Automatic annotation (TrEMBL):
Transmembrane segments: none
Taxonomy, superkingdom: Bacteria
One Gene Ontology molecular-function label: methyltransferase activity
Pfam families: rRNA_methylase
Keywords: Methyltransferase, Transferase
UniProt protein name: Methyltransferase domain-containing protein
Gene3D superfamilies: Vaccinia Virus protein VP39
Cross-referenced InterPro entries: MnmM_MeTrfase, SAM-dependent_MTases_sf
One Gene Ontology term from the biological process aspect of the record: methylation
SUPFAM superfamilies: S-adenosyl-L-methionine-dependent methyltransferases
Length: 191
């Protein structure tokens, strides 16, 4: 087995979840890696909404999508992920991905923060359709990362177990605060 990165790990679940025609959200577009994957999986009949607060990130994501021929079913949105509820209807989204922290190769002072991330997670949960998946990759160790990590992990522990399945994983033998992947599945209502 190859050495799995945290993104390799959660993308296996995303590939199982997302179907052609789905509506998906990349809550932290960054360089567009998850955006591109979601566009490939939703196909020409689906749609991906990709959020970032940095024009630099969205430009990078646009270049990646253009190079892969995936721009037609994606809307890049210069806005905070906490406002994703303004762009999608409740219970309409199949999958939402979050990669917390900062844009690789850019200024670390511009990063996700606990308060807006918690609002984004709550908004995203209301957008997930029953059976929908949210992935949250928590990068900590720099700047505000520890505060955000602790806030997110506290938040997901409070989610109603009758409505959500929350799975937290960790790399126990990696030094220097390895990323923490969290999966949240919105459970279908009990009959």
């Amino acid at each position: 087995m190859k050495n799995l990165t945290v993104t390799d790990w959660y993308r296996q679940f995303v590939r199982t979840q997302v179907q052609p025609g789905d509506l998906c959200i990349d809550a932290t577009a960054g360089n567009g890696n998850d955006t591109a994957l979601l566009c490939q999986l939703t196909g020409p009949t689906g749609q991906v909404l990709a959020f970032d607060i940095q024009e630099k990130a969205l430009s990078s994501a646009r270049r990646r999508l253009d190079a892969l021929g995936l721009s037609d079913n994606c809307r890049l949105i210069l806005d905070s992920h906490e406002f994703m509820g303004n762009y999608a209807a409740p219970e309409s989204v199949s999958c939402i991905t979050f990669n917390l922290g900062y844009l690789p190769g850019s200024d670390h002072r511009t990063s996700t923060h606990a308060a807006s991330t918690l609002r984004a997670l709550a908004s995203g949960l209301s957008l997930l359709k029953p059976g929908g998946l949210m992935t949250v990759c928590i990068y900590s160790g720099r700047d505000t990362g520890f505060e955000e990590r602790d806030a997110v992990l506290s938040f997901v522990r409070t989610l109603d177990s009758r409505k959500y399945l929350v799975i937290q994983s960790e790399y126990v033998n990696r030094p220097k605060h390895p990323p923490i992947p969290v999966l949240i599945i919105r459970l279908p209502p009990n009959p």
